């Protein structure tokens, strides 16, 4: 049996750019390196940070693909795939990996598929989200459009040709099975947390708290926090509206919003017009190394995602980070959250798209202070037992070992 030791990860973008995508990539590659694998990454044209053609970031080596794709929609993406495939092939010829491990979107998968078949290398395709649904969620696409259908068709093509398929949650797996993919071909690799980065939670900074108005009469206020990107599907507008209801029961409660995104201006305007305007604080984007200072101010982290295909199918990372930080979690009752949060044990779930339900859930947690230690312990235990990268990454070993047993003639044909 061939021993798979060199893994080339094909990526949309990577560190030093910062996003949930790059942080998961970092965790995966670090965990695999700790298991004894040699790992590298190669990024496509959508990695827009300036840097050398081979760049080390946080101890990991990433190769960059140079070039630009132009033309009308559809043709432009096809040209982008061709350029990216050349970039992948360059690394393959120089480094000779044992496995090509491509990560969504499907543009990465299709480019990797061309090179994998040309060089007879096993291909793993890992789906973190269906990007056509993500485009709908962030307002750059519409469900059922031509682009939506073409993206979905391309993804299905890559899935059918890959030697192994990985998804981050059961919702995505179930959707692929519904499209005709055999369930035994799909491995679920849950979103996880690198617990080496979450030791003792940072201490509350009294000066920072006072500067934000999080004290009344010298006593700390209860703080609800949201740290992340301001997209419509995140439901931050629901949370802002909920604060007006919550203020009727807890006038001392405050809302901390950290981050930015396309909805920021509208959210700031909504907050300014709210009866609870004085209780809402926007701090904008903060450097990644300062995020823990803001986590430390919050008692409850709120995740009011709206119901959609995206939020029902995909599990987010942020609730797991909050549990690792020892925070209480209040989340909307959508499919992605239900895979992570057990109502009444590791957090509380409330009806999505309902500001009053959100307010009642937050008020219930604030009024149940006696059970906070139990919530915190259950959340941390859940992350340690089911979402620690040091443990979960071992599942990749099973996938790679299966590929080592796969005979060349059983792999797909060269993709167009």
TrEMBL record:
<dbReference type="InterPro" id="IPR050194">
    <property type="entry name" value="Glycosyltransferase_grp1"/>
</dbReference>
<protein>
    <submittedName>
        <fullName>Glycosyl transferase, group 1</fullName>
    </submittedName>
</protein>
<dbReference type="InterPro" id="IPR028098">
    <property type="entry name" value="Glyco_trans_4-like_N"/>
</dbReference>
<dbReference type="Pfam" id="PF13579">
    <property type="entry name" value="Glyco_trans_4_4"/>
</dbReference>
<dbReference type="InterPro" id="IPR024004">
    <property type="entry name" value="PEP-CTERM/XrtA_GlycosylTrfase"/>
</dbReference>
<keyword id="KW-0808">Transferase</keyword>
<feature type="domain" description="Glycosyltransferase subfamily 4-like N-terminal">
    <location>
        <begin position="20"/>
        <end position="192"/>
    </location>
</feature>
<dbReference type="Pfam" id="PF13692">
    <property type="entry name" value="Glyco_trans_1_4"/>
</dbReference>
<dbReference type="GO" id="GO:0016758">
    <property type="term" value="F:hexosyltransferase activity"/>
</dbReference>
């Amino acid at each position: 049996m061939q021993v798979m030791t060199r893994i080339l990860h094909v990526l949309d973008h990577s560190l030093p750019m910062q996003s949930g995508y790059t942080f998961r990539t970092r965790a995966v590659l670090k965990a695999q390196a700790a298991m004894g694998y040699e790992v590298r990454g190669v990024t496509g044209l959508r990695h827009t940070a300036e840097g050398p053609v081979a760049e080390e970031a946080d101890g990991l080596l990433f190769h960059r693909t140079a070039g630009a794709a132009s033309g009308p929609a559809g043709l432009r993406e096809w040209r982008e795939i061709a350029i990216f495939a050349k970039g992948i092939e360059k690394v393959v010829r120089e480094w000779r990996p044992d496995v090509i491990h491509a990560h969504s979107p499907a543009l990465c998968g299709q480019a990797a598929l061309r090179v994998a078949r040309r060089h007879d290398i096993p291909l793993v395709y890992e789906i973190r989200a269906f990007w056509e649904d993500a485009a709908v969620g962030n307002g750059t696409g519409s469900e059922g459009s031509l682009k939506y259908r073409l993206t979905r068709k391309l993804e299905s093509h890559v899935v059918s040709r890959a030697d192994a398929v990985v998804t981050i949650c059961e919702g995505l797996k179930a959707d692929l099975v519904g499209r005709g993919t055999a369930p035994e071909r799909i491995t679920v690799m849950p979103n996880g947390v690198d617990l080496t980065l979450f030791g003792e939670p940072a201490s509350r900074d009294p000066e920072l708290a006072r500067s934000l108005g999080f004290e009344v009469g010298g006593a700390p206020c209860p703080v609800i926090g949201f740290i992340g990107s301001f997209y419509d599907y995140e439901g931050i507008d629901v949370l802002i509206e909920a604060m007006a209801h919550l203020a009727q029961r807890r006038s001392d409660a405050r809302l901390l919003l950290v981050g930015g995104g396309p909805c920021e201006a509208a959210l700031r305007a909504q907050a300014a017009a709210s009866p609870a305007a004085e209780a809402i604080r926007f701090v904008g984007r903060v450097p990644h190394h300062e995020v823990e200072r803001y986590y430390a101010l919050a008692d409850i982290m709120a995740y009011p995602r709206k119901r959609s295909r995206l939020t029902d199918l995909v599990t987010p990372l942020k609730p797991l980070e909050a549990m690792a930080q020892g925070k209480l979690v209040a989340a909307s009752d959508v499919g992605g959250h239900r895979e992570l949060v057990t109502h009444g044990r590791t957090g509380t779930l409330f009806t999505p798209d309902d500001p009053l339900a959100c307010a009642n859930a937050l008020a219930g947690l604030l009024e149940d202070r006696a059970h906070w230690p139990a919530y915190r312990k259950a959340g941390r235990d859940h992350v340690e037992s089911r979402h620690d990268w040091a443990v979960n990454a071992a599942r990749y070993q099973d996938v790679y070992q299966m590929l080592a047993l796969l005979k060349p003639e059983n792999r797909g044909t060269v993709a167009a």
